[in-house]
Amino acid sequence: MIFGKHVNRYYLKNAPILLLGIAALVLVDYFQLLVPELYRIVVNGVNTGQAVVDGVTVDFTMDVLLDEVCLPMIFIILAMVIGRFLWRVCFFGSAIRVETDLRCRMFEHSKDLSQQYYQENKVGSLMSLYTNDLDTIQECFGDGVLMFCDALVLGGMAFYKMLQMNLLLTAFALIPLVFLCVIGLTLGKIMVKRWELRQEAFSDLSDFAQENFSGIAVIKAFVKEYQELRAFCKLNQQNEDTNVSYTRISTLLDITVTLFIESVVCVILGYGGYLVYNGQFDAGMLIEYIGYFTSIVWPFMAIAMLIEKSSRGKASVNRVSELLDAPIDVKDREGVENLEKVQGKIEFRHLSFRYPGGDFDVLKDIS
Fold this sequence. Notes:
- The chain is mainly α.
- 78% of the residues lie in helices and 4% in strands.
- The protein is built from 10 helices and 4 strands; from the N terminus they run αααββαααααααββ.
- It has helices at 8-13, 15-32, 35-48, 62-110, 115-120, 123-165, 167-214, 216-221, 225-278, 283-324; strands at 50-53, 56-59, 351-353, 363-366.
- The strands form 2 sheets. Strands 1-2 form a two-stranded antiparallel ribbon.
């Protein structure tokens, strides 16, 4: 999730639709955690010919398979499909509306800014704000709410069920995940700085290309094609280097997540197999426990992805905020009324003007 004074308002503005999406997400997570229990019934039924259903041991027959496994599974699948469609519409639809409103606010503010602002901020930088940065904010808003809520709800529910089955096994499984969170937070801080550099490099490249296309006649007249080509290659190389640098950190985070998750699987199979050997677990219970851990894998991967997206989103929000917070130098005084019909009688009184960066006024006290 991303926060900032120009983004926070949208959480409250879209609160009803976001709450509906969260309710659908909780429903999907609840039904998803019913599936491992059905796995346990099937595995124990195939192995021993008997299964525990609602605390009662029954013979594993075709009727039990259809009534206690197949029919509930069909209902679970339908509920998950409907719920996932609903939260996608709610979360991603809200993100698109946030991007649209931000773009309108940015354009409304941009047309009131003075010429001096556009002399200090080149076109390439503005292009980056209206394209890459707004796309990043949209992605982080929708995916951020999804990942945060899903990690909290699904992870909490799956963790509770794992604790109910075996406390010590769950404690062993969480040790690598604690290290994962610490490393993820550390890499996230680095990724914020790398993303800002990446956006700046893209802005410089876009600005250089725009200026060259605008002044192509001058460049050809003075036979400067080779010099401009070398300068473009240099900027392009800088853009490539910053992208590769960011991708390295992002890839390192993905590899770290995979490494720690696979290590947890080894712990579960090792100690879980020992519990089955001692008779504290049966095969169905081990499969059920692995099913719960499989459900908890996504929340931890979501945390890693949330760190990455939040890092990019925070950098983009900072850049957009610089535009929205830019002061308007030329504006009407307080209490000025809008003219309904202009009669053509326009007067200047005591007008002075100096070009930005100039040493003296080119117009002084003109009426």
